[in-house]
């Protein structure tokens, strides 16, 4: 397994859990408890929080987006489930978030104003972070607190996550969680250039790419959501299509494969790859802050490793 990742030039932190036991926990650069920007991998936490709200009767999967944001184009046709499954037909062709960042409310207004709806794509899979930006704001509406406060209460404090913070945390916190800045390799000379976090855009992505986490904390969230007491069995079944009642490839922040779920993040000089069995007993997490432009190659290697690990 190490060899497979070494062969594609992976440098970072790797955690492998097999049948509930730590199988590998190593770092070829940084440390095993280094925190990285997890980018889109955060969507599985937001997706689960939405399902929790459904379970608590604060929301329905069939609620239309118009119930919350009636001025979004197509809002009366798009449901919460469409947003969770990336089948809304909604897109935005601008970077998310105002420059400079003012507030989550202003970012929501900006997103609504710039959203486009393609009715022909309603019900068809088309990945757009915008879906999870709307879901993050809906969570804030139904719980009457900011998305950050909700996630801090429900996950960071509840699970005692020691190496997790939002990207805009102060320097003292960043140091405490062993956060490292991302690095991008230049194609011209092969040198790595340190990337500064674009906090305006990261604020704009809110529940879809703003968390810093280490591998252990990520694995705790996976276990809590899929095999803990956060969601009921019926909620898990509905969120991740466990009965195969719908022909979907993505839901609740995870790509749905036959025997496992997958999630990938890449931006700002980071790659995060997460693979988990549906019972969270077998998990692979690999994170790096040395980006070489081989995201799709690494994604494929992670899929192969997960299949091999489950044999």
TrEMBL record:
InterPro entries noted in UniProt: AmpC-like (IPR050491), Beta-lactam-related (IPR001466), Beta-lactam/transpept-like (IPR012338)
Chain ranges of the Beta-lactamase-related domain: 13-295
The protein's Enzyme Commission number: 3.1.1.103
Superkingdom to which the source organism belongs: Bacteria
Keywords: Hydrolase, Membrane
Transferase recorded as keyword: no
Record localization: Membrane
Top-level enzyme category: hydrolase
Keyword Protein transport belongs to the record: no
Gene3D superfamilies noted in UniProt: DD-peptidase/beta-lactamase superfamily (3.40.710.10)
Annotated GO MF terms: hydrolase activity
Chief place of localization: membrane
Any one Gene Ontology cellular component term annotated for this protein: membrane
Protein name: Beta-lactamase family protein
Source organism per UniProt: Lactobacillus jensenii
């Amino acid at each position: 397994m190490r060899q497979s990742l070494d062969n594609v030039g992976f440098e970072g932190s790797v955690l492998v859990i097999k049948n509930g036991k730590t199988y590998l926990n190593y770092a070829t650069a940084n440390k095993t408890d280094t925190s990285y920007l997890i980018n889109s991998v955060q969507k599985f936490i937001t997706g689960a929080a939405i399902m929790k709200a459904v379970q608590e009767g604060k929301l329905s999967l069939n609620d239309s987006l118009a119930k919350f944001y009636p001025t979004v184009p197509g809002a009366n046709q798009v449901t919460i489930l469409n947003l969770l499954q990336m089948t809304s037909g909604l897109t935005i062709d601008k970077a998310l978030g105002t420059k400079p960042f003012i507030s989550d409310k202003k970012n929501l207004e900006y997103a609504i104003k710039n959203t486009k709806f393609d009715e022909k794509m309603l019900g068809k899979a088309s990945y757009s972070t915008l879906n999870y930006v709307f879901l993050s704001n809906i969570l804030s509406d139904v719980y009457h607190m900011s998305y950050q406060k909700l996630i801090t209460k429900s996950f960071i404090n509840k699970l005692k996550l020691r190496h997790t913070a939002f990207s805009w945390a102060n320097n003292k916190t960043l140091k405490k969680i062993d956060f490292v800045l991302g690095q991008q390799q230049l194609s011209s000379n092969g040198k790595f250039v340190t990337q500064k976090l674009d906090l305006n855009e990261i604020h704009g992505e809110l529940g879809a790419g703003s968390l810093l986490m280490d591998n252990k904390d990520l694995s705790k969230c996976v276990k809590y959501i899929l095999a803990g007491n956060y969601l009921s069995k019926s909620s898990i079944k509905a969120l991740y299509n466990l009965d195969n009642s719908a022909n979907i490839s993505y839901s609740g922040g995870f790509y749905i494969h036959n025997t496992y779920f997958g999630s990938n993040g890449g931006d700002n000089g980071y790659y995060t790859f997460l693979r988990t069995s549906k019972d969270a007993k077998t998990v692979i997490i690999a994170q790096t802050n040395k980006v070489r432009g081989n995201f799709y190659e690494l994604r494929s290697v992670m899929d192969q490793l997960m299949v091999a690990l489950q044999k």
